[in-house]
C-alpha cells in the first residue's frame, strides 16, 4: 500500500491531485487516507514540492 501512496504522490507532482486521487482509489486506498496524504502540509525531506495549477512565471 505504501508503494501505491508513494506513486500517488509522484503523480500528484507530475499531473495533479485528481490524477493522484484516481490512481490511489483504483488501488484500494481509502478516501480519508488519500485526502490526508494529498492535503498534508508537512512533507518529508526529499518529497517534490507542490506545484500550483497555474504558472507563476
Give a verbal description of the structure.
- This protein is mainly α and 57 residues long.
- It has a domain at 2-39.
- The chain contains 3 helices and no strands.
- It has helices at residues 2-15, 17-26, 31-39.
- Helix 1 (2-15) runs antiparallel to helix 2 and helix 2 runs antiparallel to helix 3.
- The radius of gyration is 11 Å and the shape is globular.
Architecture blueprint of SSEs:
Blueprint: H1 2-15, H2 17-26, H3 31-39
Counting helices, strands and paired strands, the structural category is mainly alpha
- The radius of gyration over CA amounts to 11 Å
Mean pLDDT across all amino acids = 81
Oligomer: single chain
Cα-to-Cα separation, first versus last residue: 36 Å
% residues in beta strands: under 5%
SS elements, strand count: 0
Q: Could you state the order of secondary-structure elements as H and E?
A: HHH
Please summarize the sheet with the most strands: none
Number of helices: 3
Low-confidence stretches: none
- The helix fraction, in percent, is 55-70%
Shape: globular
Amino acid at each position: 500500500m505504501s508503494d501505491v501512496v508513494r506513486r500517488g504522490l509522484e503523480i500528484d507532482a507530475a499531473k495533479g491531485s485528481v490524477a493522484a486521487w484516481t490512481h490511489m482509489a483504483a488501488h484500494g486506498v481509502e478516501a480519508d487516507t488519500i485526502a490526508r496524504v494529498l492535503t498534508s502540509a508537512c512533507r518529508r525531506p526529499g518529497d517534490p514540492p507542490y506545484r500550483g495549477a497555474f504558472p507563476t512565471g
